[in-house]
Amino acid sequence: MALQPLAYRMRPRNLEEVVGQEHLVGEGKIINRMVQAKMLSSMILYGPPGTGKTSIASAIAGSTKYAFRILNAATDSKKDLQIVAEEAKMSGTVVLLLDEIHRLDKTKQDFLLPHMESGRIVLIGATTENPYLSINPAIRSRAQIFEVKPLSEEDIRVAIRRAMEDAERGLGDYHAVLAADAENHLVYATNGDLRSALNGLELAVKSTAPDAEGVVRITLPIIEETVQRKALTADKDGDGHYDVISALQKSIRGSDADAALYYVARLIEAGDLQIIARRLRVIAYEDIGLANPAAVARAVTAIQAAEQLGFPEARIPIANAVIELALSPKSNSAYTAIDAALADVRRGGHGDVPDTMKDAHYKGAEKLGHGVEYVYPHAYPGDWIPQQYLPDKLQGTQYWQPKGNSKVEQAYADQYQKLRDAQQKGLH
């Protein structure tokens, strides 16, 4: 047990110990219901590394008391699958976590299918790939597909503290104390990857000598070394992480290229490529948006290049994106428009989709009047004709409020207004 990594030892023994993924394992949610009803079915879990796919499989097995086995679709053979199948015949049911299921070949797949259908093997496939694109339809049709989402910083913090306190499986016997700024950095620097966080924590504890009082004191510099990521600041509350990201977006929004370069340089120095990529994508669409769609597209391309290159070369396309976004015309009109539409949706009570807009591609739709009076715009000059699209109670609602901060957005604004005027005239 001592030789097994901390992340392995801390795997949840039941659903209650799973960190995060409340949308799947929380009270009343789908996997929780399966376990409670003892009606397990094969499933595919997909999401980023270190977010809990193996943990969920382990917790399902622990909660149901079924045997739990782990294989890799790429490296383990058909013979390994046969061993699991034989065990399932003896014990009744085996929960099999099959990692990298997107790499399952046809021979192994054909062997697994009858065992999945009989229920002897509850297959839990794990993958970082989109299963709708990467997994064979024969497997996909026999399994439910669930997305495993990145863990929140609070989820990571809970798991870290649990590992620090657990004397049986964790680090509780080491008398270790994790400084607040060290904990913050461990949470932030691992970007939702719990496995990386626990690996860094275990290395820090086991490689640090106790002080004169017998306490292993884990400081920020130690965590920086064990996770190989520098902290943005050493402030006590860890706010520097958010402050720098906030300053980067505000500098670009305010068109200060030099300030934006300075703040992105701090993120680069900290090695936060994932954070930079995500934030620049948000900035491109939120703050530049329809004022300069070409700049948005170029920024996304630059971010993709940075992710493919990695540091240190990634700094070059990042700099290109930051400078162009900072100097570009700005508009948040699309961002505010979708928020206005969402506000209406969340308030509810706006009536049904108009009958003309309803799906008519099924038997009986015509009797219900669905889609009967829909007019096909492409059959008319200019590929347009006035007809009602919004529900009755929302007729005339204007969500998009164009700003016209560039020739591009002004052209969109002119077309938008022209179509709104023609629509209102045509419907009255």
From TrEMBL:
BP-aspect Gene Ontology terms: DNA synthesis involved in DNA repair; DNA-templated DNA replication
SUPFAM superfamilies in alphabetical order: P-loop containing nucleoside triphosphate hydrolases, post-AAA+ oligomerization domain-like
Entry protein name: Replication-associated recombination protein A
Organism annotation: Weissella soli
Residues in AAA+ ATPase domain copies: 39-151
Family recorded in the similarity comment: Belongs to the AAA ATPase family. RarA/MGS1/WRNIP1 subfamily.
Source species taxonomy: Bacteria, Bacillati, Bacillota, Bacilli, Lactobacillales
Keyword set, alphabetical order: ATP-binding, Nucleotide-binding
PANTHER family assigned: ATPASE WRNIP1, WERNER HELICASE-INTERACTING PROTEIN 1 FAMILY MEMBER
Pfam family, one: AAA
Domain of life: Bacteria
